[in-house]
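Extended Data, panel c. Modelled sequence:
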Amino acid sequence: MSAETGAVADRPWWSQQRAPPPPVLSLTALGGTAAAGASFAPTHTVRFGGNWAGYVAAGSVDEFVSAAADWTVPAVTCLAKHDLYAPWVGIDGYNSDTVEQTGVATSCSTGSPVESAWYEMYPAEPTYYSNPISTGDTIAASVTSSGTKFTLKISDVTKGWTETTKKSLSSAEKLSAEAVIEAPGGYPKITSVNFTNVLFNGRGLKSFDPVKTTSGGYKPGKITHGDDFSIT
């Protein structure tokens, strides 16, 4: 997923960004994973918000080499079978056309919430893991970069598993870092998403004077302890 600022409110979002619009979503459950065919793309802006809710630190080319955050998998109520949303942490996507990201998606394609960890090197499609995840589990996720190489790591601290993936992306500009939620299929009803230990380049979130983004009626609260915030 990616984001851009300065959009004109009465223009369609796909005319406000350099990346093409996301594909039509096919929210088919995949053997216990959340869904296939839905991309978590760069940010874009529409009249009443955008596709990201959370905080973004924006900078210059090659500025951001790591992004990390923890959160607890929240309780979710499905409102429609096409609902699909994810909290995630990543690099790029704010005024750039790639996103290097990892998180936990919740799909409602079966009629009930199904959680799956995933990573994505947008514009490539997301890859889902089959590891078990439950509401209330503590998740720790990070994306780090060295040159054109990226390491995407996600752990379910409660269940005790970790997935680490190494990928390369020469077009990544490393212009931003973010901890956000996004819903390429539509938001279910979410209690709240509580991000903690949000660190970009090893520094607390608040030190970057980050940009606040809203989406689907969800918005982040104040940053506490320098690196924690909740989305409601």
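Residues 4-36 have pLDDT under 50 and may be disordered. This feature is highlighted in the accompanying rendering.
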